[in-house]
Amino acid sequence: MFLIIFSTLVDYTVGISLSKTQNKFKRLFLLWTSILVNIGFLGFFKYYNFFIDNFSTAFSFFGTTINTNSLNIILPVGISFYTFQTLSYTIDVYRQKLEPTKDAFAFAAFVSFFPQLVAGPIERATNLLPQFHTKRIFDNKKAVDGLRQILWGLFKKIVIADNCAQYANLIFDNSSNYLGSTLLIGALFFTFQIYGDFSGYSDIAIGTSRLFGFNLKQNFAFPYFSRDIAEFWRRWHISLSTWFRDYLYIPLGGSRGGNFKVIRNIFIIFIISGFWHGAHWTFIVWGALNAVYFLPLFIFKRNRKNLNVVAQGKLLPNGKEFVTVFFTFWLTVLTWIFFRAENINHAIKYLLSIFSETLFTVPQFADRKTALLTILLIAGFTMIEWIGREQKYALENIGLKWSKPIRWFFYYLIVFMIFYFAGDKQEFIYFQF
Amino acid sequence: MKQFTLKIFLFLLPILIIGIALEFLLREIPNQYTLKDNYIATSSRKIETLVLGSSHTYYGVNPEYFTKPCFNLANISQSLNFDLELLKKHENEFSNLKTVIIPISYFSLFETLEEGDESWRVKNYTIILI
Fold it and tell me: I want to staple A119 with a disulfide (CB 3.0 to 4.6 A). Which of A3, A34, A263, A430 is the partner?
């Protein structure tokens, strides 16, 4: 509690102070105060033990043992999200893109806005803060839309993510006991677990905000229908990737300054993005791999090729679209292995086991019927997502033209499925970040 | 806003009704906890020896081998705190109770039901201890 209050006070004060001076050095000093306080807290609570342990390992590699004390640090909930959110405020005020607010309560509400405090979306002050200054009038259509989004978010989390989690956890935690085909299915389950979990939370957060008359930005735009990695990163955790683009990539020079600089910037962004997720080498490797995939697209100027929705206005994709979506999807599945694995060694062994002769065997599941049911749920879910891929969330326009009894029956069906297919309760994955 | 609230209430009402009905029906299904609770309600005065504890006594102690009237109130994974709660619930009903057997297994002093893998069984106690 102290952390968020302190962070709020610092950034509120910095914002006001920035408006009172035009002196370049003073403004820079104020900006860096905000950056150091926020990143300092984040760095300490999230990365202290990582750096200490790796520092010690590096020294022991050279034959020297140093005594270090790891601290038993509990990561404050939401710190990775609200620190970035408040930083966006001070940076935008510094850049004079936003007038600082004198309303301390509005600012505190912006920082601690409960639907998105714990796991995003990371909102920009330019979007969310003004909404606290305007009077919100209840809008029935917005509220109903919000509830529909919450319902879909709950379905994604409880039916899809939690059911996939049971198999993903079982397979990843005992990966040495499984054949390649099962390990591949395990990676597939994790792929849908993390999507259902995180985008489900975002849907619940955005839907809840709409109930209160607030408009948050879309955080996921059907990323698994992407035709290349560049498109994937325009559709996955949009609030984080745009944050890094605007506040790190562009200040580093962005796409200007020669190939070496651009390649450096791309790697920095992706690696830091990976590292943001957690203090493990697996996240860094995951980020670096995504940079490796992105680079050829950038070099051959194909990174902005697929800006519209795949098969826009059509029922099905054409052959080329299908192949590119399929390829990108499976590339992502294999990369998620690093995200989920215990360590690099585990991830590499997992991958090697997939790409062995045991890949062409029948997957092993103790309870085959339930595993098959989960796969069927994923298939049905993917179909609904495909149908709604041109909307902000899959259910946005589905059923709006149906009669009320049929529409309510559809809602009851989803509620029934949430209760009936509820998997073992799992924590939201991104709460740990 | 009123219309919206009313519609939400109307939407949730069938879910609530079905939920409450299902809860009621599920509670009517006999299980070992309710069967034992009902037995005590009808036969508590006869019981002179009461056996508490977890699956060790649940499976390991047969009241039929006792010379005096005995009842086995042990349940799977039942920890000491629930032994106590059950005893407290029925203490006024056991008018002839002379002996209470409380087993101490290797885990008894270190674990409670709420903290273990069988914590889902707590709901059974919640129902019968009201």
Answer: A430
pLDDT at A365: 82
Positions in chain A whose pLDDT score sits under 70: 64-75, 423-433
Please report residues of B whose CB lies closer than 8 A to that of A154: none
**Distance in angstroms (rounded) separating the CA atoms of residues A429 and A157:** 10
B4-20 exposure pattern, b = at least 16 Cβ within 10 A, e = fewer = beebeeeeeeeeeeeee
Region for A394 from its dihedrals, namely left if φ exceeds 0, alpha if ψ lies in -120 to 50, beta otherwise: alpha
- Say if residues A230 and A298 touch (Cβ distance below 8 Å): yes
Does the ipTM exceed 0.85? no
Handedness of CA A260, A261, A264, A266 (dihedral sign): negative
Residue B2: Cβ-neighbour burial (10 angstroms; 0-12, 13-18, 19+): exposed
Residue-wise pLDDT tens digits, A16-68: 999 999 899 999 999 999 999 999 988 888 887 777 777 777 777 777 666 66
Interfacial A residues in 118-147 facing B (CB < 8 Å):
138, 140, 143-144, 147
Q: Which residue, A150, A425, A420, A214, is CA-closest to B11?
A: A150
| Helix (H), strand (E) at residue B49 | strand B49-51
Position B86 scores a pLDDT of: 94
Q: Do A144 and B4 touch (CB under 8 A)?
A: yes
For helices A281-299 and A259-277, angle between their N-to-C axes, nearest 10 degrees: 150
The pLDDT of residue A430 is 67
Give the per-residue pLDDT at A207.
96
Q: Rounded distance, CA A206 to CA A199, Å? A: 10
Do the beta carbons of residue A132 and residue A395 sit within 8 Å? no
Name the pTM for this structure: 0.86
Query: Each residue of A119-128: pLDDT tens digit?
Result: 889 999 999 9
Q: Which of A211, A130, A206 is nearest to A391 (CA)?
A: A206
Contact A21, A128 (CB under 8 A): no
On the question of pLDDT at B36 being above 80, the answer is: yes
Element (H, E) at B70: strand B70-72
From residue A223, alpha-carbon distances to A390, A419, A433 in Å are 12, 27, 20
Q: How far is B14 from chain A (nearest CA, A)?
A: 10
Q: Which residues of A are part of the catalytic machinery?
A: 277
* Strand ranges of the sheet holding B49-51, from the earlier edge strand across to the other edge: B70-72, B49-51, B99-101
